[in-house]
Amino acid sequence: MSETAGVETLRWVGDAAAGWLRLIDQTRLPTELVEVDCLDVERVWCAIKALQVRGAPAIGVAAGYGAVIGARAAGLSDPGTVRHALEAAADRLATSRPTAVNLFWALDRMRAAARRQAATGLELLENLLAEARLIDAEDRAMCRAIGQHGSALLRPGDGVLTHCNAGGLATADYGTALAVIFSAHAQGKPLRVYADETRPLLQGARLTAWELAKRRIPVTLICDNMAAQVMREGRINLVVVGADRIAANGDVANKIGTYGVALLARAHQIPFYVAAPSSTFDLALAEGAGIPIEQRDPREITHGFGRQTAPEGVDVYNPAFDVTPAELIAGIITENGIISPVTHAAIAASLRPALERVADPSFDC
Ligand code: MRU
């Protein structure tokens, strides 16, 4: 992320044989900007599980690099050993978080890369690092394109509401929902962003407000339960959020609370947009009801940020995501353009070029 003076959301350090994954520990923001080094698969798994790295695209990129680290765990004696270790690492990383499909998409790419021909264990490992770097680079490019397409939706003076964090911290760089705002801001359009704080882990307060302030984009932080009032007061012209998984019919899983925001937007006749790269679509799922929703530790609600705020032992329900039905979504902004209206056919048509590339056996990344 350029606004962090050379500190990037995540990056690979060193070569394939001895390098490692370095990432910003997002649990320490906004008060401390510190990086952590992940030198083994377990450390990458923990970083994803504990939300040190989070946001669907960033989780995918981290998993790609994590698979490289795991692939060399049993030594580089021959390609078979490296392939075996890669599979074990991918299986382990796939258990870290269930909802963001980018995790599984990236691990599938790493498994496919491991099946390609290599003369030595080291050559295979270098191929794997090249694939992980490609996932990283593609994510950066997709985010820039999303920003460019989505910026056309914003007019000078608009008020924009967003939920959770879909910024540079949630991707390799630049973000998805925030990319739309960054891009419009860069075009000279004055905007005011309203950031939901996003209970229980406060990604909106800790991360979105931080990213916007760093870029000197006017931002107003609100508690999640203030969105209806802010809309009624006429402060919001458009809502834009990210996504963790999008089903074939356009139903969108995103941070818990997103569905409520979409309902509020509909009630106030405010367009509600989702911004996400093609890597966040799961076309194997017909509709959002099939998306696995992560359940997280009750203590995130009862003991958030080190202070007990509920009686000991109280029953807690803590789903980390919800599903917004396609009919509430005005459009989905991808690297290919804006899908609107959001229908099964429009999604298939928009993603077809990417799907054909994957299906074409002559296409080799
Ligand atoms: O639990 P998190 O912080 O990983 O949830 C993140 C979100 O819900 C984001 O909105 C989503 O991953 C899109 S990030 C570009």
Features:
365 residues, alpha/beta, Four Helix Bundle (Hemerythrin (Met), subunit A), Rossmann fold, 2 domains, 7-stranded mixed β-sheet, 4-stranded mixed β-sheet, 11 helices, 14 strands, disordered C terminus, binds 5-S-methyl-1-O-phosphono-5-thio-D-ribulose
Structure description:
By secondary structure, this protein is of the alpha/beta class. It has two domains: 10-144, translation initiation factor eif-2b, domain 1 (Four Helix Bundle (Hemerythrin (Met), subunit A)), CATH 1.20.120; 149-359, Rossmann fold (3-Layer(aba) Sandwich). It contains eleven helices and 14 strands. The strands form three sheets. The chain has a seven-stranded mixed β-sheet with strand order 6-5-4-7-10-13-14, sandwiched between helices. The protein has a four-stranded mixed β-sheet with strand order 11-8-9-12, with helices on one face. Strands 1-2-3 form a three-stranded antiparallel β-sheet, covered by helices on one side. 48% of the residues are buried. Mean pLDDT is 95; it is low at 360-365. The structure holds 5-S-methyl-1-O-phosphono-5-thio-D-ribulose. 5-S-methyl-1-O-phosphono-5-thio-D-ribulose (MRU) binds at residues 51, 54-57, 100, 164, 166, 170-171, 175-176, 203, 242-244, 254-255, 320.
